[in-house]
DNA sequence: CGATCGGTTGATATGAATCAACGTGCGTGG
DNA sequence: CCACGCACGTTGATTCATATCAACCGATCG
């Protein structure tokens, strides 16, 4: 991954929820195109390269530009789809399932963007970020990842994820829907 | 509320996550306008009145109809906003907070649609639905609602929610963002 | 070379799940 | 019209998954 960022909400009680991760080529937020005031924040995990568009400019060009319209619709649909997946994970699934789900989700998105060798993915996250994304504590994330490591499913350290047993990881994390 | 429905995903393990509730006037799903295959299901809680639109028809009229474009954009933004709220609730908040949040969210949406008397809201849900929406068991939902009742915050039975202490309910459930 | 950060590990605490029993209202069929 | 069954909710006892608290370790960095 060339760079990585995330969108999150800081909860008054001190916790935060990571709402999604942003990868190269992602629209930062489809809603942001239409809404002036945003309820969330965003932060990069690496150096990142952003392109900005004026809201007025987009709106002006949008009506007569079917390709832009289609791109926005597609981005919006993907956001909704991903949000549904995370809600399902957070609401109904165990710690192991959530973490496996997150890894699977990320490696799938990364795979559409770059060629992957030996199932190694650059994923510059700390366990804290995983915890904030899947609604667990960093301590518990550490335990689950250790468990995965002991079972030979993955290696994860130094910002690199290596998948060693994809079928089993999928069995745990996938919803296959 | 004249009628009520919800959008949900059936998890292979037998649980289900309610992704959102649909109220009169809501677009069923913005994504459904563009995508052929949907990953979720929907169900009504009461008799409901639906209007259908052909996907082709919408697409054809969409380019040259700025009002429709705006309506879709607005609906899509609201969906994303609500999804963020639920992800935050599911990921970071306690059982009491989640349930208070859900009630607040629903009464707010209902209030924009009908005139409310005496803080009484028709809300034809079973505790099972609340449980499926906020990621708890029906048993625990029952306990929390009893607690709220004992503290004089709400009454909830027979499909009617009566709010008795809105400030306190808000203090518990609101994120005030 | 000490300090800080991220991760690991162990002990204990706790919120919510699970298991189970019971109550109540309601619809249905005898 | 009664009796039974069923859906829904309540309540108590217990279990379990994850949080919390705390100590420690290794790497990195000023």
What structural keywords apply?
homodimer, alpha+beta, 3-stranded antiparallel β-sheet, 7 helices, globular
Q: Would you mind describing this structure in some detail?
A:
The structure is a homodimer of 177-residue chains. The mean pLDDT of chain A is 93. Helices cover 49% and strands 16% of the residues of chain A. With 177 residues, the first copy, chain A, is of the alpha+beta class. The longest helix of chain A has 27 residues. In chain A, the strands form two sheets. Chain A has a three-stranded antiparallel β-sheet. In chain A, strands 4-6-5 form a three-stranded antiparallel β-sheet. In chain A, β1 and β2 form a beta hairpin. The two termini of chain A are 26 Å apart. Chains A and B meet through β2, α1, α3 and α5 of A and β2, α1, α3 and α5 of B. Chain A binds a DNA duplex (30 and 30 nucleotides) through α6.
How many strands of chain A? 6
Radius of gyration of chain A: 17 Å
Largest contact between protein chains?
A-B, 43 and 43 residues
Number of helices of chain A: 7
List low-confidence stretches of chain A.
none
Q: What oligomeric arrangement do these chains adopt?
A: homodimer
The rough form of chain A would be described as globular
- Alpha-carbon distance between the two ends of chain A: 26 Å
Proportion in β-strands of chain A: 15-25%
Described by strand count, sense and barrel closure, the largest sheet of chain A is: 3 strands, antiparallel
Helix fraction of chain A?
A: 40-55%
Structural class of chain A: alpha+beta
Name the helix and strand elements of chain A from N-terminus to C-terminus, one letter apiece. Answer: EEHEHHHEHHEEH
Q: How would you state the average pLDDT of chain A, rounded?
A: 93
Which strand order does the major sheet of chain A show?
2-1-3
């Amino acid at each position: 991954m060339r760079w990585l960022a995330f969108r999150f909400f800081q909860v008054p009680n001190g916790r935060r929820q990571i709402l999604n991760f942003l990868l190269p080529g992602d629209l930062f937020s489809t809603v942001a195109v239409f809404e002036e005031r945003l309820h969330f924040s965003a932060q990069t995990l690496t150096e990142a390269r952003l392109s900005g568009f004026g809201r007025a400019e987009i709106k002006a060009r949008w009506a007569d530009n079917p390709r832009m319209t289609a791109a926005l619709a597609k981005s919006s649909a993907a956001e909704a789809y991903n949000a549904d997946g995370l809600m399902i994970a957070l609401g109904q699934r165990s710690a192991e399932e959530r973490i496996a789900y997150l890894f699977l989700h990320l490696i799938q998105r990364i795979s559409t963007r770059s060629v992957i060798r030996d199932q190694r993915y650059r994923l510059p996250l700390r366990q804290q970020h995983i915890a904030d994304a899947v609604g667990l504590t960093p301590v518990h994330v550490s335990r689950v990842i250790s468990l995965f490591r002991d079972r030979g499913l993955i290696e994860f350290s130094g910002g690199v994820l290596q998948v060693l047993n994809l079928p089993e990881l999928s069995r745990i994390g996938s919803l296959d829907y």
